[in-house]
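The instructor's notes for this session suggest beginning with a concrete chain rather than abstract definitions. Hand out the sequence below and ask the class to guess, before any prediction is shown, which regions might be ordered.
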Amino acid sequence: MPFSPMLIFVVIFFLETLAAMLQNGFMVAVLGREWVRCRTLPACDMIVACLAASRFCLHGLALLNNLIDSFNFCSKVYYFNILWNFINILTYWLTAWLAVFYCVKISSFSHPIFFWLKWRISRSVPRLLLGSLIISVVTVIPAAASNVILIQMIASQSSHGNHTLADRAQTFHRYFSLSNLVLVLLIPFLLFLVSTLLLIFSLHQHLGQMRAHRSGSRDPSTQAHIMALKSLTFFLVFYASYFLSLIIAFMKITALRRQWHWAWEVVTYAGICLHSSILVLSSPKLRNTLKTKLWKALDKR
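After discussion, reveal the predicted structure:
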C-alpha cells in the first residue's frame, strides 16, 4: 500500500478510536454516576454501563497495541495482548447478554420458558455480569501462560543463537491461541446470533398479529422490537466481521497484515464504534443527557 493511503487509514483509526472512547466514556460517566447516586440501576443500563467500560478499555488497548507494534517492541506486545484478550472476551460476553436481554424482554413468545426468563432475567443480571468476568479471567489464563512461556523461550534461544525451537514454539502458540480464541468466543457469538434471530422472528410474528387485527405499526411493542433490531441487526454484520478479523489476525497472514493492516483495523473497530453511537441515541436517558450537555456548552459560548 502506498504511503499516503496508509497514512489516511492511520489518521482515521486514531479519530475512530478517539470517538469511540469519548462515547463509551460518556456512557460510563452518566450511568456510573446514577449507579453510585441511586445505589441501583435498571438491568439493561447495568449491562450497557459494563459494556461501555469494557469497550473503552478495548479501544484504548487496541490503540496502545498498534503503537507498540509499530515500534517493534515484540515482548511488550505479548504482555499487552494478554490484557487485550481478557477485555475482548469480556466484551463479547457482555454484548451477548445485552442481545439476550433484549430478546427476552421484548419478544412476544408465549412459551412458558420465555415467561420464566422474563421474570428472572432482571434479577440475574448482576450474576451474569460477575459470571462473565470470571469466565473471561479463567479462559485467558491458558493464553497468558503460553505467552509467558513463549517469551522466555524466545529470549533463551536468542541468547544461544538457536532460533529453530523458538520458531516451532511460536507456530504452536499461534495455532493454540487461534483454536482457544475460536472456542472461547464461539459460545457468546452463538448466543448473540440466536437472540437476534429470535427477535427477528418475534417481530415478524407480532407484525402478522397487528395486520390480522388491523392495528397500526406504531404501538409500543412494535417500536421496541424495531429499535432493538436496528441496534442488533446493524451490529450483527460488524460483529461477524470482527470475529473473522480476529481469526485472520491470529493466523498472522503476513502479506495482508503488512499491506492492509491499518485499513483492516479501521473496518474491524468501526462496527463497535457505530454500535456505541446507536446505544447512546437509542437510550432516552443518555440522549437527553447528551442534549443537555450540548445546550449548556452552546450557552456558555
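Then share the key points. The mean pLDDT is 78. The CA atoms of residues 158 and 252 lie 21 Å apart.
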